[in-house]
Design goal:
Radius of gyration: 16 Å
Strand order of the largest sheet: 1-7-5-3-4
Helix content: under 10%
Number of helices: 0
Shape: globular
Structural class: mainly beta
Distance between the termini: 36 Å
Strand content: 35-45%
Largest sheet: 5 strands, antiparallel
Amino acid sequence: MSLTEDRMTTHRDGGLVPFAVAAGEEVFGGALVAVNAAGFLVAGKAEAGLTYLGRADAHINNSAGIDGAKTIQVRRNVAFLWRNSNTNPIGQNLVGKICYIQDDETVAGTDGAGSRSKAGVVLALEPAGVWVE
């Protein structure tokens, strides 16, 4: 049904958002995180079908819990400095292009023949790593 009068729409700042953690997951503060196909948060890993979210704001251990038993705050909508892969490094030629999740602190230059999920857009490279938006 369309609006017929003004509506005070509830909103949330998208910068720090809580996500339900997947069963069996332990996520460390500062880790690259994603959601799995079921919509539960996991630590970054080389796995197809994940959707990149951002950075875990704290440590959470749901290794003994079921899906959604715990939640964690995730920092989003900013660029993060992730480690550059030693085995599949990101080069200057990938600035402005997509990079891929290798693990919970590392991004790679390719999808590893379909074994890695997208992380985000490469903004810059520096000796400490790769800035990913």
